[in-house]
Design brief:
The complex is a heterodimer of chains A (236) and B (245).
Chain A lengths: L13 H18 L1 H21 L4 H22 L2 H9 L2 H7 L4 H30 L7 H26 L6 H27 L5 H30 L2
Chain B lengths: L1 H7 L2 H33 L13 H27 L3 H33 L8 H21 L4 H32 L15 H33 L13
Classes of the chains: A mainly alpha (236), B mainly alpha (245).
Chain lengths: 236, 245
């Protein structure tokens, strides 16, 4: 880390940079469509397990539906973390990013947003189907989708911090879950609670505001933690 | 002041200072523990509802309080190590984590033992403090697990420091979310949670025990810090050959 000039060799505007990184991220991910499907299928299968293991009774399903959908979403968000930073670290791309003089927190945040678009958004899209399967009333479906849309964003940022911390460890998959899950508890609590309130036909603004606040806090502070962890992980 | 700070960050000096402080911490903590235990067992009157089983709170409450205190101390030490690249602060954070795990476990175990006769259950999902303390235990365990997965001590120090800081930012959020979660669900009417209001005659042994626990933790931290320094500096020339491995 001695003679690194802070100015980038080719000066690129931040917005152009954002578009470039995001497009690269999406293009690379879409080429591996099989990997894209895996968290989604996992999400569907895990939610299927609960009625099989407990009861097929409609009113009981409705009572636990919010919790089941949210637990499955949290678990699914952990699955794809392994592939978030590792390929870029292994082929040296990340090292170039660190040395590029561009703001690393921003680059990693853009990458996380790209990751969320392909791992979080599909869960949001399919959630009404699963929620209906749990006899959650139609009126609550927008809340299911909105809470998942905000909540998976927070989950993605927290997961990205965990992924950056463990990226230089060979088999960090289980470890990431151990590190990240306790931190994700608040998202789970308020996400499931919002859905629960919606099912009972009550006002949901309270937990939704709290989820929004957590998303803002995660977006503001998370990238710096990611960048700090990544710098330590990459340098050797 | 700054000179002293820099001096303390040198391993031989810190090793010597920790060794000198340790007996003071240890013996004063033993004295206070004996005093506190005597007061808690014989001086304090039995609770008119809970009878003698309420006496376990003189162990339970200090353990619960310091399980959070140690985490904050660990996070601050880790941050100092990360920001000022002070290796000794990292060593301190590393030696605090196992103490935190044991104290947190002690808080949970004494809580369960207390809860069994009082609430009729070892474990109550409705009590936010149980859930929060358990999550703290998992944060400690995650920190230790992350640290253990690196061979390189310096990298383990710095990566785990980032985790400790992220965890400390998250701790208040987790704490309040768990508390609100509980208030959102219907409250339990059979079990009564919350701190009982305490008479002054029952309070002073509590302060004695809090201080005794703090001194005990400090004494164990001195020991662990010295062991950590020895492990890290095992090839350094300042060590007498008896210690060198």
């Amino acid at each position: 880390m001695t003679a690194i000039t802070k100015t980038p060799a080719v000066s690129v505007g931040l917005s152009a940079l954002t578009v470039t990184v995001l497009r690269r991220e999406l293009r690379l991910a879409l080429r591996r469509w099989d990997q894209l499907l895996q968290p989604l299928l996992f999400f569907v299968i895990v939610t299927m397990l609960f009625p099989l293991a407990t009861s097929a009774d409609q009113s009981e399903l409705r009572r636990m539906g919010a919790g089941v959908v949210w637990v499955a979403a949290v678990l699914a968000s952990l699955l794809s973390l392994e592939s978030l930073f590792r390929p870029d670290v292994e082929d040296g791309t990340m090292e170039q990013w660190v040395l590029s003089g561009q703001p690393l927190p921003w680059l990693l945040l853009v990458k996380t947003v790209g990751h969320w678009m392909l791992s979080g958004l599909p869960l949001v899209a399919i959630s009404p189907l699963l929620a209906t399967g749990f006899a959650i009333p139609d009126g609550a479906l927008p809340v299911v989708m909105a809470s998942l849309a905000i909540g998976t964003g927070v989950l993605a940022v927290l997961g990205a911090i965990g992924a950056a911390l463990t990226v230089s460890i060979r088999r960090g998959n289980v470890l990431v879950a151990l590190l990240v899950l306790p931190l994700q508890v608040p998202v789970l609590i308020f996400g499931a609670h919002a859905v629960d309130l919606a099912i009972r036909g009550e006002a949901v603004v309270g937990p939704m505001y709290l989820l929004g606040a957590m998303l803002l806090a995660a977006l503001c502070l998370g990238p710096f933690a990611m960048a700090a962890a990544m710098r330590i992980s990459v340098e050797s | 002041m700054w000179l002293w700070f820099h001096k303390l960050s040198s391993p031989p000096y810190a090793y010597a200072v920790a060794g000198k402080l340790r007996p003071w911490f240890l013996w004063s903590s033993i004295a206070l523990l004996l005093l506190g235990a005597y007061a808690a067992l014989f001086v304090v009157p039995a609770d008119y509802q809970q009878k003698d089983s309420a006496r376990i709170m003189y162990v339970h409450v200090p353990a619960g309080a310091w399980s959070q205190g140690i985490y904050m101390a660990m996070a601050i030490a880790a941050a100092v190590g990360l920001i000022w690249r002070m290796k000794l602060a990292h060593a301190l954070a590393a030696s605090l984590a196992p103490i935190g795990i044991w104290i947190t476990a002690l808080a949970l175990i004494t809580g369960a033992v207390w809860g069994r006769p009082m609430w009729g259950t070892w474990w109550a999902w409705g009590d936010p403090r149980i859930i929060f303390t358990t999550l703290t235990l998992f944060l400690y365990l995650g920190y230790m697990a992350l640290r253990a997965s690196f061979d390189d001590v310096q990298r383990a120090d710095r990566v785990s420091a980032v985790l400790a800081i992220v965890g400390s930012v998250n701790v208040p959020i987790v704490k309040y979310s768990v508390e609100w979660w509980n208030s959102l669900h219907q409250g339990s009417s059979v079990l009564k949670f919350g701190k009982p209001t305490i008479d002054a005659s029952m309070l002073w042994p509590m302060y004695v025990m809090l201080l005794a626990f703090l001194l005990f933790i400090a004494a164990v931290a001195c020991d662990r810090l010295r062991a950590e320094i020895l492990r890290r500096e095992r090839n350094a020339s300042w060590l007498p050959s008896a210690h060198a491995v």
